[in-house]
Amino acid sequence: QLHGKVALITGSTSGIGKGIAEGLANRGCDVILNGFGTENEINLLKTEINKEYGSKVDFVGGDLSKSEDIIKLSQEIYKLYPSGLDILVNNAGIQYVSPIESFPPEKWDLLINLMLTAPFHLIQRFLPSMKTKGWGRIINMSSAHGHVASPNKSAYVSAKHGLMGLTKTVALEAAGTGVTCNAVCPGYVETPLFIHQARDRSKQQGITFEEAKKQIVQVHATGEPVSVDQVGEAVCFLCSPAASQMTGTSITMDGGWTAR
Ligand code: NAD
To answer: Number of folded domains in the chain?
Structure first.
């Protein structure tokens, strides 16, 4: 149970991050949401989570691909919670698919900034207060693409592999302080990010959306996608006492993809 703890989940206005916020709120944790969305959507989500689980729910916005926004977000969080976070979930992420020869350099920068540099900045800002408290959980949303590559995803695969390295390094630096740092590596999860990829594929290959989804998920030995709730539960497990000796490692949930 996570009563009295506070978590920031980046990119939690949608998909996996939203599922994680709900999972943590369900354990009694106060949650800070972040991500893009209209004011209405965000207010609705805050109200929904608060009503359903009774947790305090805040929203702190910011484009995490920009370091100035990360500084502002951190300051705002320390204003809300002067002793800092207990749980940091670095989840915000996007995909961009293109052969490397035509991969736009600005897209490379965007993906690396959002999925590798932002976690670095956030860990740098929130690890010290976790160490002071003697308890903390840092969870980095990697991917099966943190273990293996696929063509045309150079920035994504590089960011996720880099995030695995960051996870291990932070785990070693924090070892013995009560703070753990781990990654979660899902295969394909049915979220808007996945749906966009399926839509693009169906257009490019002239196949139906359902066929495109099936094709993408064929990379899983099970042929089935992971659910948002399953990822949320994995994060909650990493925050539980049973996981206190797990650090510098990852939970892979990819329907057997990387076992092949
Ligand atoms: P999603 O598109 O449903 O949600 C992404 C979230 O990140 C949204 O809340 C969005 O507003 C936010 N976001 C995007 N750009 C941002 C920015 N610049 N600053 C702040 N927030 C930003 O995607 P998802 O599928 O839920 O993905 C979440 C994470 O899970 C990503 O890191 C992704 O790489 C990872 N992941 C997804 C899958 C999958 O199949 N969906 C598989 C493995 C890993």
So the answer is: 1
